[in-house]
Write a structure and sequence with these properties.
about 250 residues, alpha/beta, Rossmann fold, 6-stranded mixed beta sheet, 3-stranded antiparallel beta sheet, about 25% strand
Length: about 250
Amino acid sequence: MYWNTGVTTPLITLKDLTIRVDGRTILENVNASVSEAEIVTIVGPNGSGKSTLLRAMIGAIPPAEGTVHRAPNLRIGYVPQKLALDAALPMTVQRFLGLPRRVSAQEAVQALELAGVPDLRNRQMTKLSGGQFQRVLLARALLEKPQVLLLDEATQGLDQPGAAAFYQRIEQVRRDIGCAVVMVSHDLHVVMAASDRVLCLNGHICCEGSPRTVADAPEYRALFGSGTKGTMALYQHQHSHSHDHDHSHDEAH
């Protein structure tokens, strides 16, 4: 098991980061870091800059002001929000995993096992369920043996048990390979339980800290309302090591 809670080196550091797109300020004066083997979740309302922050971490969007520092030769795995494939295009999971770099059957199987779907290698991509498709995207990101795994609303479109199972798999991946994880999510009712640290974003960082600290913060409650009670009920439930998925009574938002 790689995970430890000691002091670790930041893999990505954002200092006074401001991002502008077409003259509009999307993010302003953001200071944050991602350390080895921690799970950081970014929450916030629509339009709060969550995906923009992730893209800035990768280097896909240049800062207008401030800096993004990545550890030298940092390996990043990225799971996008969604990926559209032409339904008429026959493509197996093995072939998909081999784009753009061919991967061996053994590499594909290892990545799929880590993603929790070991038997999908010869299946057609267009025949996968939503949950299976997201697991294959996860496997593709894991092929890079990432030190940081970035997930941009990777459970969008999955039902609540499917989303909860996906986040538990992410926790397992962190334990197995020791990577840091940064997740953008709307799934407040399940994502908080999987996090070491939460950043609440609304163009800037409103509040940050442990899931409990953030859920109790007035800034968080102002954005998300009384649904946070359901979030914390689930947080306490999951951290009592009971992992059944019947959380339909919890408030989603």
